[in-house]
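User: Second chain of the day. Same drill as before.
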Amino acid sequence: MEYKDFNDFKSSKGLTFAPTKWLKVTQDMINHFADATHDHQWIHVDEARATEESPFKKTIAHGFLSLGLITKFLSDTVQVHTLKMGFNYGIDNVRFPHPVTVGSLLRGIVSVENIEDQKFGGLKIVWNIKVEIKDIKKPACIASMTTLAYE
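Assistant: Same format as last time:
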């Protein structure tokens, strides 16, 4: 969804936007995330061992990888043309209801819970984001994220 400016965007309070496009989780993504976070637990990076020992019979993505994708899903969902910069203010109520196996397709569903005016022409925005896994009933991640945005 595109908005001309912050005044236009304020009309989105309470809206749930259309789902994003599906994004495939690859082993390469998982390995890069493991390298960046220094979390090389075998369930994420050892494909042979996961095939043998994991109840999923393949590697799974880090929960925080699913959480990290919410910013991508957010930017894929909403654009405000006058936005100059934005900051993550915090994330609340994070849950990982279902593991994400390698090869899964994920998409985001974003809604705007609240919008408040801030100093210097900014906005404080509370987003609710659900990361869905294709063909799985439970989501990979649900979270409430607050951002500060300035135009």
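The first helix runs from residue 6 to 9.

User: Great, on to the next one.
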